[in-house]
From TrEMBL:
Residues 129-317 form the DML1/Misato tubulin domain. This is MtDNA inheritance protein Dml1. PANTHER family: MITOCHONDRIAL DISTRIBUTION REGULATOR MISATO (PTHR13391), PROTEIN MISATO HOMOLOG 1 (PTHR13391:SF0). Residues 2-118 form the Misato Segment II tubulin-like domain. Its main location: mitochondrion. Keywords: Mitochondrion. One of its GO terms (biological process) is mitochondrion organization. GO terms for cellular component: mitochondrion. Belongs to the misato family. Involved in the partitioning of the mitochondrial organelle and mitochondrial DNA (mtDNA) inheritance. It is found in: Mitochondrion.
Length: 512
């Protein structure tokens, strides 16, 4: 067994993480003789509840602003309580000897979903699904207990402060948080040292709000664990290079911040799978069978989580031969830069139709502005597919289809994807009382030539910023030499990928 340590940073990342951990919780089996499909110890550690009852806690560090944790508190693990508030007040008094005037805000009420969980011991999964309109925080539909040190609450910022894309501020905030909490020495090391054979770190983070922060975290992590594999899912901002007005200061700042994140991930992580912001997803035939609101973080995070969880499922399957390093090596076999794509289709047709379903395979990593989002129009260098819920005849159909492709993928076929009551009704048109308990889907990690388009757009943006050296770059503290170095490194990453059928004119590469 090789354990995985998970890192989540940012609101969207934690929505994705909530769905991810709810799915892991659904794999637990309680019938005698029923074996789970995954090895739970890979992602969970044993712990105790407040009543000293044994429970399993995720091996995860969760970073977000304090206000975004909602009712989640270290003492309760799942729900907030007055004991937590009293503890925080008492801790604050230890640093002040004078009189204290205490003002308390009204406590945040439990979510309706958690109320149902508390009222019914044997909760009927199909009876009371989460309503999107009732979601206030990502913790509102969490079904697992967390270790107190998993919850890393960062100070809230004033409403008038816009820190999206502030690279240096994020790095400075990590330094403060690390010095105040001894994060790397205590919390992170606690999870690392209790592992028998840690296989690596899986990171999911919002680049706009936690780009500089996670970069500083990873840099510190690498200083101590230079050879430990790291597998990341950076969630890019909604500012796409090539479609940003030069007068849009915040948009330019977020795009430059994304460029810095990608450049540094190439140096620090063994493999990164950038994911485009849900607001930029195209609306076409890939949405067949889906009822999805791109403006709902609860909905979009569930879709992303289903594909992230499925694509990484081979890391947790019982008897698996895969680990983070082997998957990174398989996807980097061509010697290309350390970037791959996540694509998928949900739900699969019933019965599975290879040509129809593969045309619906949507690439969540491709920049959608000005070009297709379907991966089959680019050169695929390596591929790792995981299917969920295919029957034996459908597996044969899939295998025949893959034999006709230019490259043979690594393939894992697994049971259908579970749909706990916390999952939105994305694939259901029936009444909630008859909602499905599982879904059929396909997720794919690919190393593809279309990555060249992504890095070319960022390199072009930085090149233009170098020539202009606008107020935005001054505010970000980026010197002209730093911008030129960033531009050159982005072009180097771009040039390391084959061009596919895009042509140099589609890369906007100029003299580079």
């Amino acid at each position: 067994m090789k354990e995985i340590l998970y890192i989540q940073a940012g609101t969207l990342a934690n929505h994705i993480g909530t769905h991810f951990w709810n799915t892991q919780e659904s794999y637990f089996t309680y019938e005698e003789g029923e074996d789970p499909i995954v090895t739970h110890d890979i992602s969970f550690r044993e712990g105790l509840t407040r009543k000293d009852e044994p429970t399993f806690c995720p091996r995860v560090l969760i970073f977000d602003r304090k206000a975004n944790f909602g009712t989640l508190s270290p003492t309760s693990g799942l729900y907030g309580d007055k004991e937590t508030d009293a503890l925080e007040v008492e801790q604050s008094r230890t640093t002040w000897n004078g009189n204290v005037v205490e003002y308390r805000q009204d406590s945040i009420p439990k979510s309706s979903y958690h109320t149902h969980l508390e009222e019914e011991t044997a909760y009927p999964e199909a009876s009371a699904p989460v309503k999107t309109s009732n979601i206030r925080y990502w913790s509102d539909y969490s079904r697992v207990y967390f270790h107190p040190r998993s919850l890393q609450k960062l100070p809230d910022h004033a409403d008038w402060e816009s820190l999206e894309g502030d690279w240096n501020a994020g790095r400075e905030e990590f330094a403060r948080h690390d010095s105040e909490t001894s994060l790397m020495e205590d919390s992170f090391r606690l999870f690392v040292e209790e592992c028998d054979a840690l296989q690596g770190v899986q990171l999911t983070h919002d680049t706009a709000t936690f780009g500089g922060f996670t970069n500083a975290f990873l840099t510190s992590f690498r200083d101590e664990f230079a050879k430990l594999p790291c597998f990341s899912f950076p969630l890019l901002s909604d500012s796409i290079p090539g479609s940003i007005d030069q007068d849009d200061a915040i948009g330019m700042r977020k795009a430059l911040n994304d460029a810095l994140c990608l450049r540094n991930l190439n140096e620090i992580c063994d493999l990164s799978i950038p994911l485009q912001a849900p607001s930029t997803w195209t609306l076409d035939d890939w949405l067949e069978g889906l009822s999805l609101s791109r403006t709902s973080m609860y909905d979009t995070s569930a879709l992303l989580s289903s594909h992230i969880e499925t694509a990484t499922l081979p890391l947790r399957l019982r008897g698996t031969q895969h680990d983070i390093l082997s998957i990174c090596s398989a996807l980097n076999a061509s010697g290309s830069p350390r970037f791959s794509h996540l694509s998928g289709v949900l739900p699969l047709s019933d019965p599975f139709m290879s040509e129809h379903d593969m045309k619906r395979l949507y690439d969540f990593s491709t920049s959608h502005t000005g070009r297709t989002a379907h991966v089959d129009r680019d050169i695929v260098l390596s591929r790792f597919d995981v299917s969920r819920g295919l029957t034996a005849p459908e597996v044969q159909t899939y295998d025949i289809w893959t034999e006709l492709r230019d490259i043979s993928p690594y393939i894992v076929h697994a049971p259908a994807y579970p749909l706990p009551s916390s999952f939105p009704t994305l694939c259901n048109t029936a009444s909630p009382s008859s909602r499905a308990r599982s879904a059929r889907l396909l997720s794919s990690l690919t190393t593809t030539s279309s990555s060249a388009h992504l890095f070319a757009k960022y390199a072009t943006l930085v090149e233009d910023a170098t020539k202009r050296h606008t107020d935005v770059t001054n505010q970000m503290g980026l010197e002209a030499d730093e911008l030129r170095e960033l531009k050159d490194e982005l072009w180097a990453i771009c040039d390391a990928f084959p061009e596919g059928n895009a042509g140099q004119e589609d890369l906007d590469g100029g003299e580079e």
